[in-house]
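Ops channel
N.P.: pipeline sanity check, posting one input/output pair.
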């Protein structure tokens, strides 16, 4: 008897020490995480996202598209994947997916009061900000699978019957009790039931294993929601009341879930308690019985799970925006939205260009930008487009001042041949432009569109003729078009557009650029002047210059002057 008590004492002591070591490791990890959070506050994000995970991030957006959203052409034109990486400080999957959704679905009304209040709360309340960062870091993400893909398939999970698992458990219990009556017979019965249970266990576990990760992630959602709601000062955040309501609805889902989706059981770490629990479940199927209950709960509460993802994602995305603002060192403004059609921006700059040159703009109509290659035309278009999107998504503009109407934003810039459909660049381009024309005809906010080198895929004569008419069609009360071109002829043909330009300066044998946005059409003959610097025959240079001057005066070309 003394030996048994000693063994039991050793086991209890071992488990208690393991428990204490677990608490110590958890506290150490939290302290290290807090040190990292404080050390990197005000700096660029340090959490690269794996390529496999990046493929999953758009899933929330795909399941919650608004009537207007940034289409794939515009997203790729503006290289918004890189922009997203720059503003993303989210550590959880819910936050990452919701922040992506914000960029893809810019608001179409000026409804930012609670949004801005939450961001300022995180900016001013360091304790709440850090506590939330720690919580979301512990939640992590869904790794290689999408919550929404699995929620759609939850009803396809194996339909299991509780009684088919409860009855063998009853037989196990009866057999064990009857062993005291007739050991030889009922021990054999007991072994048969155990053998049946173990074989069936592995068959069923293989069928349901796909769904265990999704259940575990939902448990994380519930756990983080509960802990976030309990944080000091958290009640001031907009979505906390929604999360509390969701937690109440999901209480039965979480109750007893450790037997199925505890972290140690899913990770197969060799934890002694987990090993004992594994063998117990093989015989009793308690985890499978819990799976059946959880499957029913989640099927009835898919909308509640979606609300939790939305609530947590919304809170962490606003936290991410507060962290992004801190990294800008004050070089940003909160936008002002106006009914009148004037777009005004002072010292606007691009979020992903190091040491970007800031430019200012004020216009109540479309603009046409001319200038040579590499002078800054395309970058300026992207700068205005991204900041207009920022204004209506993260409510943060990289400028000293920004005021404008609310827009539907489109672009046609970085197009390429579509070999999969056998379409030339020109066909791809006119389709891209047609979608903008059609959008301007539909009801909604003013379309703000950005076009770089319109119709570059065809010959000069047809390009100028077609470009003129297309750009004219993009100049009316429901659309504002910003276009960049090499075709200086367009600056004479388009009366409805304001003319601006970027220019280069000839220095020795090269051209340098100041990237400053200037009024009026481009006048410098840098391309011709550079011919002279590169020791071309002066006769070639002079005749080229005369041809250009003649065109400026008459609007027509003449080769022999």
């Amino acid at each position: 008897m003394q030996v048994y008590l000693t063994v039991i004492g050793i086991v209890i002591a071992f488990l208690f020490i393991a428990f204490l070591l677990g608490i110590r490791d958890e506290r150490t990890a939290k302290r290290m995480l807090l040190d990292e959070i404080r050390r990197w506050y005000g700096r660029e994000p340090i959490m690269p996202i794996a390529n496999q995970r990046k493929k999953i991030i758009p899933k929330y957006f795909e399941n919650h598209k608004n009537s207007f959203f940034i289409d794939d052409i515009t997203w790729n034109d503006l290289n918004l994947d890189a922009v997203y990486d720059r503003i993303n400080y989210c550590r959880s999957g819910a936050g990452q997916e919701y922040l992506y959704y914000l960029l893809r679905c810019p608001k179409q009304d000026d409804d930012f009061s609670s949004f801005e209040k939450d961001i300022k709360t995180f900016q001013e309340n360091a304790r709440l900000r850090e506590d939330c960062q720690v919580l979301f870091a512990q939640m992590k993400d869904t790794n290689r699978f999408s919550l929404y893909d699995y929620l759609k398939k939850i009803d396809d999970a194996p339909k299991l019957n509780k009684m088919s698992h409860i009855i063998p458990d009853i037989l196990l219990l009866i057999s064990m009790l009857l062993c005291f009556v007739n050991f030889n017979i009922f021990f054999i019965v007991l072994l048969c039931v155990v053998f049946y249970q173990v074989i069936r266990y592995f068959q069923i576990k293989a069928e349901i294993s796909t769904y265990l990760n999704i259940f575990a992630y939902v448990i994380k959602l519930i756990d983080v929601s509960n802990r976030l709601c309990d944080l000091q000062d958290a009640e001031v955040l907009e979505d906390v009341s929604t999360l509390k309501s969701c937690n109440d609805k999901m209480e039965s889902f979480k109750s007893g879930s450790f037997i199925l989706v505890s972290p140690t059981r899913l990770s197969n770490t060799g934890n002694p308690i987990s090993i004992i629990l594994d063998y117990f479940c093989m015989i009793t199927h308690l985890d499978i019985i819990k799976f059946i209950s959880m499957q029913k709960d989640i099927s009835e509460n898919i909308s509640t799970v979606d609300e939790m993802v939305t609530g947590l994602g919304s809170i962490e995305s606003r936290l991410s925006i507060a962290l992004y603002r801190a990294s800008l060192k004050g070089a940003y403004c909160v936008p002002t939205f106006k009914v009148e059609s004037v777009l005004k921006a002072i010292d606007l700059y691009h979020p992903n260009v190091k040491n970007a040159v800031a430019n200012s703009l004020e216009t109540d109509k479309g603009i046409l930008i001319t200038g040579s290659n590499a002078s800054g035309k395309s970058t300026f278009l992207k700068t205005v487009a991204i900041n207009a999107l920022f204004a209506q998504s993260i409510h943060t503009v990289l400028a000293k001042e920004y005021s404008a109407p609310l827009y539907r934003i489109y672009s046609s810039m970085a197009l390429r041949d579509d070999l999969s459909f056998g379409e030339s660049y020109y066909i791809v381009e006119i389709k891209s432009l047609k979608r903008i024309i059609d959008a301007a005809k539909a009801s909604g906010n003013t379309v703000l569109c950005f076009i770089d080198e319109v119709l570059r895929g065809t010959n000069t004569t047809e390009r100028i003729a077609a470009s003129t008419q297309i750009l004219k069609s993009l100049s009316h009360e429901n659309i504002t078009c910003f276009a960049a071109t090499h075709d200086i002829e367009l600056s004479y043909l388009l009366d409805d557009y304001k003319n601006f330009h970027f220019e280069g300066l000839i220095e020795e044998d090269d051209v340098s650029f100041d990237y400053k946005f200037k009024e009026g059409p481009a006048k410098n003959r840098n391309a011709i002047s550079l011919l002279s610097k590169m020791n071309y025959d002066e006769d070639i240079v002079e005749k080229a210059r005369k041809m250009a001057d003649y065109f400026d005066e008459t609007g027509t070309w003449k080769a022999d002057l």
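N.P.: looks fine end to end. The mean pLDDT is 84.
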